[in-house]
Each structure stands twice: as C-alpha cells, then as structure tokens.
Amino acid sequence: MSDRTAPAPAAATGGDSRTVLLRGGEVHSPADPFATAMVVERGHIAWVGSEGAADAFTDGVDETVDLDGALVTPAFTDAHVHTTATGLALTGLDLSGAADLGEALALVRKYGADRPGDAVLLGGGWDAARWPGRRPPSRAELDEATGGRPLYLPRVDVHSAVVTTALLDLVPGVTGLAGYHPEAPLTGAAHHAVRAAAHAAVTPAQRTAAQRAALDRAASLGIGTVHECAGPEISDETDFTGLLGLAAEGPGPRVAGYWAEHITDAKGAERIRRLGALGAAGDLFADGSLGSHTACLHTPYADADHTGTPHLDADAVAAHVAACTEAGLQAGFHAIGDAALTAVVAGVRAAAERVGTARIRAARHRVEHAEMLTPEHIAAFAEFGLTASVQPAFDAAWGGDEGMYAERLGAERARTLNPYAALLRAGVPLALGSDSPVTPLDPWGTVRAAAFHRTPEHRISVRAAFTAHTRGGWRAIGRDDAGILVPGAPADYALWRTGELVVQAPDDRVARWSTDPRSGTPGLPDLTPGTELPLCLRTVVSGQTIFDRLNG
Is residue 124 part of a domain? Predict the structure, then answer.
C-alpha cells in the first residue's frame, strides 16, 4: 500500500452492521477457487468457502441469501468517469444512435420542442465519422433546428462541440479564443468557454439529479466505485464537491475524486486537499483527442496536415509531479498522442531526478488513456510505477483497419494503439474505465473489449482484464486490500445471472493448464463476442445494498 495519505473515496457512512450468509452460488475468490458461499460481517468479507462448511454459520447470521446459482464477484471500479456529464447524457439528448446528419437534426428539433422551458439545450454523442458524408451539423442547421435557442452538442469524445449562435452570444469574446472555427466544431479554449456557459445554465437541482442518475446507472451495472475525473477545464468546484457530498450521503457507489489542476507548490497541493480530491490528476490535459485531431503526435495525422495540440511540456509535467509527490498527492495527466506521452514521461523522469524514483513509485501517479504508447513509453511507465488508466471500449468503437483510428493515423500506426498485453508484460499497473459519457458505463463490455481487442497482439485474458477493472481500480488509489473477495476486504460485491463459467484466454500464449477446470483457477463468464453479457442482480458497497433486482 502507498505511504501517502489522502482522503478515502466518498461513500455512505456506516454501511450495514448485520451479518449475512450468501450460499448456493459461485463465489469468485482466490481464497477458495471452488467457493460457493460467503459471509459478510460489519461491511467486510468475513469468510468464503464451501457449501458444506457454510452450515456452521446458519445460526449466527442475521440473513441468509440463497444465491440460486448466481455468480458473486467483487464490484467493478470504473477508473475514469465524468459523473455529471454522464447523468446529463442519460437525461438529455443522446445522438449516439443517429444514423445520419438528417436524423441527428430531427432529434435536436424534437428535443427542443419537448423542452420549451430549458435555458440551454444539452446533448451529445454525435460522431460524424459514422455518417454518410462524414459532416457535422453546421451552425445554421442547428440554429434552424432549435428555433434560435442556445444549444451545446459535444462530439462523442467531448473534445470538440457544435453550438448554436445563441450559445455563442452568451460568451463574449469567444470568436477570439483559440479553437474557434466559424464553420467547424469548436476545440480548445473556445470549446471550454462555451461548455462553461452551457453548464452554468444547469440548475443545482438539475445537476444533483444528473449525478444521482449516473450513480444509479453505475450501481445497476455492478459498479461499486467510480473515479470522478473533474477539473477547472471540465466542470467546476461546486459540481465536484457537490458530487462528493452526494456520494457521502448514500446509499450508492463510492466516489474517488480527482481534480485536474496544475500545481507547482505546497499551497497548490493544499488547495487540492481542501477540495477533497485524492490528487491533482485525471484529465489534466497534456493533449486532446484523436477524433477531434487535437491529440499531440510526433508526425502529422494521415487526414490532416498538422500534429495536434500540445498543452503541457516536460517542464510543466515535472513541476506538477514533483509538487504532488512532495505533498503526498497523486499526480496524473490525460495523454493520448505519442508526443504528449513523450512529454509526460520526460517530465516524470525529471521529477524523479529531483525527488527520487522511490517516492515517485510510491505515489502511484496516473496517466489517463495512454493510447499511442511506444516500447520506450511502456518501459518508463514500469520504471516509475505509473498506472495506465485505460478505456478498452475506445478500441471497440474506433479500432480496426477501417475505424476512426486508422482514418486519423493510417492503418499501420493505428494498430499500435492501446497495447494492453505489452503493458501487462512490462508490469505496468492497469485500471480500466469508460470515460463515460464518451463511451457508456459497461463493465463486462469493457472486459470483453480488452480480451477481444481488434488488434490480436494487444489482447489480454478475461481474468487479467477483470482484475484490472476490479482490484486495479483500488490499487490505482493506493489500496491493495480491496477489490477482491477475501476475508478482511471491504464487502463491495455484485451478484450476477450468467451462463457457464470458464477460464478464457485470448489465444495460446496463455498456458493451457490454466484454462483447465482442474487447475483451480476461478472461472468467469464467457465473454466471446455475440454471447449475452451477465445481468446484475444486486450491488453491495460496504455491506449495504445499493441496487437490487432480486427483491424488485
């Protein structure tokens, strides 16, 4: 466990003080690979074992749960979430299903007509790369569809947006900001400014409702913890502290909060602590995104004559990492392009020369997304103990020789992206997440995407991906005693209805003995593409049920 001190993830206080016996199912535990029963006492796992041994506990428990064959696993941790934006997407206009530009405009028109009282219309999820013609909606088209009302529509990657003239009118000076394009989606500072104006129109009640909707959705999917990646360029302090407060009221998923503000001294670190953040990390932008042509590359895009947009150089990274390390905080960066990752690695190395490699490793600093990794980057991640907080659904959505990555980079460069197998071989800690609302909250789908990566050489086993999406998220916040069903661990778990359990490997690189049932390796659901994903029946955090399909 890390030697740093930081706030614990926000969660409902108290938990459940009862003793509960679960039996008659399959318990995924390294303590007993054939376990069918589990005892939970005062919010922690007290025992796991066989059905016969469970009889000894029946008279001393407050409740016995008949699992009826259900699978019990640790609850998932989603290591990268934008909670309010996720909730607004759940309750707002979702264009992810629009088949073409015409359908998207029709949905905008209907959404506005159904909400005549909204000060600003909010939506997102559009991806022109999937539409015939590959053109985003123009400002004139959106002005017509909304009847001249303010509208904010970020692209699916949330690094650019199309807006109406009425929203621009709410941001004086926006036309002079970097990233303003009269006839193209806004990026950079112009995008951040219009996003701030749009979100400022959201009332406190709307914001709380959106946060609750997002946390409820997470709970319904077996997610017990989310890492909120907030910051001054993404949301605001009221939003961040309000979310932590909501999570503390419970019941609901735990929230580990990160605030992505660049700091250089102890005063800045203390400000991060006062906000209740675990670190100055998350989406502290070293660059942008591939879809919006703002990820920073060493060589130009295949479909544009530039290399993207750098936001932090190695000196700025070094100052931030050193300040965080000395204060006992986590540092972290959003870095997607290879040039951005080079700047991050160089900066971490410079910070290590200043404060010592051992302290850098102990702090468990993070890099979000980390898509265009080279072998040199991977070696540096391993050397400095950097956690790769990654989103396998990105590859599922945009990978392959015909996907957006190949369009932006060319097929050869695109095939190097998201090299999960190489990261694990090097000993780099992985934490899986969604970046919701960029891609949806979908933990089993995320595990499937890592195990069946579009580039076969980057695939990892289902077991490795599952571990990275459960225990990996806890390790990323400095906890080695959680995300696993063993005595003494927090009772954060989920019950699932699923088919036959298997030990699934992507190919013959995994030893055959480990996939044989006689090996004693705990099984997991068959996630072969096309098979039905497990259905969450109940989610429990610290012994307290936060979602329940078993009892209606």
Answer: yes
